Amino acid sequence: MKLRIVLFFSLVISVFIIVNGTNEAFANNAGSGPGYTGSPADGQNCTHCHTGTATTVAGWITSNIPGSGYTPGTTYTITATATLNGINEFGFEISPQNISGNYMGTIVVTNSNETQITGAKYITHKTAGTAGTNSKTWTFNWIAPPSGSGPVTFYGAFNCSNNNNMSSGDIIKLSTLSVTELAPAGVDCGIFSIVTPVAAACDSIITPVVKLGNYGTTTLDSVNINYFIDANTPSTFTWIGSLATSSFTNVTLPPVIASAAGSHTFTATTSSPNGGSDIVTSNDTRVSSFNLVFAGSALPFSEGFESTTFPPVGWVRNNPDGLTSWARVTTAHSSGVASAKLDNYNYSSIGARDELVTPAIDLTTDANPSLSWEVAYRLYTNPASASPQSDTLTVYISTDCQQTWIQIYKKYGVPLTTITPAYSTAAFTPTAAQWRLETVSLLPYQTSSKAYIKFVNTTDFENNLYLDDIYINGPAAVNDPLSAFISAALYPNPCLTGGQAASDKITIDYQLKENEKVSIDIFDVDGKILKSVQPEEKTSGKYSEEISVNDFPAGIYFARLTAGTSVVTRKFVVTK
Fold this sequence. Notes:
Oligomer: single chain
Radius of gyration: 28 Å
Helix content: under 10%
Number of helices: 0
């Protein structure tokens, strides 16, 4: 049986907020979920739910790390103290991170009754570790990272609960502790990180960027940076400048060439700092992996997870916490024999994100590309309860080789569910009738020849989420090669010669090969359905449907005509 105790944040024993999007605010009395320290990498804290703003305080995180810096591999004691008169319930979350947001060192729980590790790189309270009169103190150990790791900041978010059973009045505090690495006497430098290439590259000519660090006590004036792809002959670039102790700088290297599409490694290493030897060589080298893509897959693009290989060839599965993640299952499917599942029912790492990323896709091969997929989901918690929970499905697109991502879809709560009633305490396995087709227009990104789509599940320990039949085509295409349609046309249509835009209504003319259940959906460029004609059984023959668009703002829209398993989408423009 699945056990969970979930209460609203401001109850006496519920002392830390777990935020899962702008309108989702949930709480767990057993400690916070990962990712809410307020660090630049986390990008959020509990004020997403609570009124007011978080204020920064000094000194709530302390340690026995010397002022001169930590010694790599040494164990230190970290102390977190929340203090506020009149408060007797407190909560916290802390994570040690570097300037890139990476988890640094190792957190070790020393009081298992009061603290616990969550989401692999965070420490938080337990229910037994929340009570205190005017203040509360927690301690834990931290094993310093290896040589060359550089500065580390402990980011902490604290809640001082007023127990008013509402989301107002609780006081949120943010505090940090920054420590440096003990600089060895002499010259010591290395590659702190590889900025690019990482994850993906979209051109055979690659301009690498590395972050160079000075870990020694001597100012760095020059160093050779040797770099290469795979096992190719290294190139050497001599950096000349002035880099003080515990400082970092990005260095752009001359281009290198990757001759073949596919998986590669990029290696960068330092040598001859200040014309001499390096007293610590373990931090000299960094390696990154990336996938080189010369051309995106032409449309139509489809994935039904029928192959036993998972993730599918060319796809990437990102599982930051190393725990539960996307997996192929044959127990549920919209079509075929398999689907992709995220087991939120048994995934208690609340707030963890798991990603499925497509290969690069060439959207230029169709004038009006669109993304569709089948989803199945059910809640565990009654959405009408005082503290509703929900897992979240978010979809992103990248048109700059995964440097940045744009959100194109997000659902959680009842809108994400595909079955009535919307919740059940049993693990959800959908039947064939418990799936829903989702569609998002990709028209704004049609000029991208190497677009990536990313499906992200953010868990809230609720219930299982499934994906199937992912499909990218143009609105003028028919999904099913054995189409039920003999013809389908929309008027007025500006895409036709001499065509015009619509102002008050559109007309859809179509002819069916055989008897089918027919429905029509009208949606905007964001994929939001604005009007629908409910499914109706129709015999073979010709039909004409008029739909009012008089209340539509000027813009681009799409009409999706569905007959059985066949789908036709047509674009139209409304002018005012």
